[in-house]
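Renewal narrative, Specific Aim 1. Our central claim is that a sequence can be written position by position from structural information alone. The example that follows is taken directly from our test logs and has not been curated for this report. It begins with the structure tokens describing the chain, in the order in which they were read.
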């Protein structure tokens, strides 16, 4: 059965094929809007578009009208729809990639297909090298050379970048820009500010006295000469665009303080959020742009300096960047019902990490000391079980001996802290310039280290350690680390059986995906999440940027199903504990509050809330 991502992909593909065919621009936009709307839904549309459905639920989705609802029903029922099939009789789907090349607009793509039967990137490259394009209108040698270079760059630049990579370079670039006097603030915009797990490029907005109109030229020259730049793409009056050696494109905009808020809102996006905001402005007799919110009747500036002023002028509460995806946040802001999103100070503990006992690089004490320095009140040490041989996983005997050592370290640290001893490791300095999700809380209770394990869920759903062993541990995280080729039915039944074991407290990285590296295994979350809620088993959001699992949409679905949610770092070193920032961003994108997250509880309440052996 087709899922939302598949439906969205086919709708977007149809829009592109319409573009090549010279279709009506309004019709093209309607397909693109529908694709974005479908992609953002937490409920699978296949359940709303079945033969027994009256279609009302589909029509309730913004961007879905009667015609588009009929298209979605066709996609769910047959895997395609009439218009798409009609267009594919004229054009091949591989032609869509050609639209991403410089100079290859819809009409040009249609022309090279009609004249040369070019249908993909390789064929276009071969035709350009043979000189075939020189015979076509407006395609001389200069165009051909530019196209060949564009094909080369496209092959290098087609991948996206994980949020941690983008954030790392945002910090590195920011440090270099801050070396210029008169720079006060540098803020990432776009996908990074909204917290999306991957970014296609990086937008940095800069302000301060050096960015005012009478001074900005020197600051632009400073940015254009940054040592990190691999290729300078453009240098304007207040904007510098360049690529890094990893082919990440960076756009730096140097802005006067008077318009900084409007620019920050505009370049943060998302596109659909901004469209809805502009429409709201028009209804109130105003117009919104990257420069200011203006009153139409006299072109007077209503708001521009800060985002809060802009949102308030539109009769809205301030909307956090992570929520700006046009998923109902504007309506909630108008009704003053936006949730108070979870912050760093709400997190009291981390319930999934590894030490040198399995595949970590730090000891029990080192992990605990690093956690104390970061303001945590407790952690759980959860090294691997024996099935993960490559990670030096533990058998039952080692697991129990390791638990005894964990409890010993916990007692020693509690004694030291109670005595007021503050050794060197309590000094911890964050090295990030890009704004974080608040600051850590100051511990208000004695520190505790919980003894746990990350136990493998075997192919049949049984666990890798004996129940008697697991019963002696404070916390058990159960995870799948193998058998990713199982069918949906097999892997769902496998994880359900593990969840039904009364000794399991948390299901670790529940879909097994790795961002930009590995697709999730075929688990049916619509079945798993309600069962986990019923059983009282928490589901994990793994903060490691390589995993980011559950993702934001799945987290929202888990919350709607009543699941307990734990946000953990899966740290394998002390430095990895800082990855909690990436997890919190995804929780905020899912509209979660502190009350929705298990490890915001004090340790005694946490232990009491864990599902116990019946």
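The sequence written for that structure reads:
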């Amino acid at each position: 059965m087709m899922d939302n991502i598949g439906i969205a992909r086919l709708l977007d593909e149809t829009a592109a094929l319409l573009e090549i065919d010279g279709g009506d621009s309004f019709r093209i936009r309607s397909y693109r809007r529908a694709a974005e709307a479908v992609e953002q839904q937490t409920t699978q549309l296949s359940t709303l578009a079945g033969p027994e459905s009256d279609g009302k639920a589909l029509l309730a989705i913004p961007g879905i009208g009667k015609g588009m609802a009929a298209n979605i029903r066709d996609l769910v029922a047959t895997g395609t729809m009439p218009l798409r099939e009609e267009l594919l009789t004229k054009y091949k789907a591989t032609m869509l990639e050609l639209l991403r090349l410089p100079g290859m607009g819809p009409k040009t793509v249609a022309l090279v297909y009609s004249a040369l039967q070019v249908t993909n990137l390789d064929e276009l490259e071969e035709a350009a090298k043979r000189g075939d394009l020189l015979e076509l209108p407006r395609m001389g040698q200069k165009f051909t050379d530019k196209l060949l270079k564009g094909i080369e760059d496209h092959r290098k630049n087609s991948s996206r970048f994980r949020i941690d990579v983008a954030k790392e370079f945002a910090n590195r670039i920011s440090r270099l820009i801050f070396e210029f006097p008169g720079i006060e603030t540098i803020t990432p915009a776009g996908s990074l500010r909204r917290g999306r797990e991957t970014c296609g490029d990086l937008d940095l907005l800069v302000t301060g006295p050096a960015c005012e109109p009478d001074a900005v030229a020197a600051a632009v020259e400073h940015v254009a000469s940054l040592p990190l730049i691999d290729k300078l793409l453009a240098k304007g009056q207040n904007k510098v665009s360049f690529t890094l050696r990893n082919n990440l494109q960076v756009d730096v905009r140097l802005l006067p303080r008077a318009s900084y808020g409007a620019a920050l809102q505009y370049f943060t996006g998302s596109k659909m959020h901004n469209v809805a905001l502009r429409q709201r402005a028009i209804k109130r007799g105003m117009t919104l742009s990257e420069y200011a919110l203006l009153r139409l009747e006299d072109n007077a500036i209503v708001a521009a300096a800060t985002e809060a002023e802009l949102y308030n002028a539109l009769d809205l509460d301030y909307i956090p960047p992570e929520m700006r995806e046009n998923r109902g946040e504007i309506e909630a802001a108008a009704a003053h019902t936006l949730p108070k999103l979870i912050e760093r100070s709400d997190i009291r503990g981390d319930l999934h990490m590894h030490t040198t006992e399995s595949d970590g690089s730090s000891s029990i004490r080192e992990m605990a000391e690093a956690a104390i320095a970061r303001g945590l009140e407790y952690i759980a040490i959860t090294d691997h079980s024996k099935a993960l041989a490559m990670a030096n996983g533990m058998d039952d005997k080692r697991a129990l001996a390791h638990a005894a050592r964990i409890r010993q370290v916990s007692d020693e640290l509690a004694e030291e802290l109670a005595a007021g001893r503050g050794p060197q490791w309590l000094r911890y300095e964050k090295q990030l310039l890009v704004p974080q999700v608040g600051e850590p809380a100051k511990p208000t209770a004695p520190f505790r280290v919980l003894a746990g394990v990350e136990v493998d869920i075997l192919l049949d759903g049984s666990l890798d350690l004996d129940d008697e062993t697991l019963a002696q541990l404070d916390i058990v995280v159960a995870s799948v680390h193998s058998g990713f080729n199982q069918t949906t039915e097999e892997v769902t039944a496998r994880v359900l059986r593990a969840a039904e074991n009364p000794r399991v407290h948390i299901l670790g990285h529940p879909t097994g995906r790795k961002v930009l590296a590995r697709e999730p295994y075929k688990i049916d979350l619509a079945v798993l999440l309600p069962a986990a809620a019923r059983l009282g088993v928490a589901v994990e959001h793994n903060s490691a940027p390589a995993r980011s699992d559950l993702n934001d949409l799945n987290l929202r679905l888990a919350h709607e199903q009543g699941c307990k949610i734990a946000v953990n770092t899966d740290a394998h070193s002390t430095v990895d504990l800082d990855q909690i920032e990436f997890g919190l961003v995804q929780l905020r994108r899912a509209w979660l509050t502190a009350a929705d997250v298990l490890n915001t509880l004090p340790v005694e309440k946490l232990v009491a809330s864990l599902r116990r052996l019946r």
